[in-house]
Amino acid sequence: MSETKQSRDAILYAYKNQEYCLKSIPKGLINQEEKIEKRLGKAKASNIRKLEIIYELQDSLSKSISKYTPCKKGCSACCHYDVSVSALEIEYIEKMTNHQRTPLIGSSENFLGKPCPFLIDNTCSIYEFRPFACRRHHALTTDAYWCDTERCFEHSFPLIGYSGLEGAFKRLVSEHSPSTGFKDIRQYFGTPRK
User: Fold this and answer.
1) What total number of domains does the chain contain?
2) Nearest to 119 by CA among 83, 91, 144, 94
3) For all residues of the chain together, what is the average pLDDT?
4) Which domain holds residue 152?
C-alpha cells in the first residue's frame, strides 16, 4: 500500500472513529463537561481540589472512549512529545509524588523526541497524577503508527475536544498563577537519567 493511500485511509478512519467516540460518551457526562467551568467557578475548594475534579471528569470521559483508541499501557510515543504543564500542575505532582522540581527552570526548547522524565520502561511512573495535556490526548487511528515522533506532524488527524474542560482548566490555571503560563514538563523535572 502506498504511503499516500495509507495516510488517507488512516485519516478517514480517524474521522469515523471520532464520531463513534463522541456517540459513546453518556449524556450525563457530556452535561457535566459542558457545565464544569461554571461549577468550579462557584466551588469553595482549593485550586488543587479543583484540578483533581477536572482530572476526574477527564478520566471519566476518557474511559468512555477507551475502546475506540489504540492508546494502551506500554505505548509511549506521546511521552516523547512536548508536554505543556502549568505551575499548579507542577505543585500537584510534587504534592502527590516524591518528585521535586529542579531548583532552576530549564531552558525552553523543542522537546519532541525526548522522553518525559516520568517515563520508565515505556510506562508513565506518575500516571495517576499526570498532567491535563496527557489526560486529554487520544489517538483515533487504528494503531500508534502515526503517533511516532518521526511521523506525528506529517498529517493532521482529528482529536476529541472538550470545550468545557478546556475552559475550566485555563481559567483555574490563570487564576492560580496568572503570570507563569505553561512550560514543558522537562523544564521543571529535567530529562530521565540513564
Assistant:
1) 1
2) 83
3) 92
4) 3-189
**Burial tier of 26 (Cβ tally within 10 Å: 0-12, 13-18, 19+):** exposed
Whether residue 4 has pLDDT greater than 90:
no
Report if residue 59 sits inside a domain: yes
Listed residue (79, 146, 86, 85) closest to 112, CA to CA: 79
Which residue's C-alpha cell is 482530572?
55
Cα 77 from chain centroid?
13
Q: Residue written as cell 474521522?
A: 15
Model pTM score: 0.92
Q: State what percent of residues in the chain have pLDDT above 70.
A: 96
Domain-embedded: residue 10: yes
Burial class (CB in 10 A: 0-12, 13-18, 19+), 118: buried
Has residue 94 been placed in a domain? yes
Q: Does 194 map to a domain?
A: no
Amino acid identity of residue 52, one-letter, is E
Question: pLDDT tens for residues 154-184?
Answer: 899 999 989 999 999 999 999 998 888 899 9
Degrees, nearest 5: CA angle 143-145-25: 35
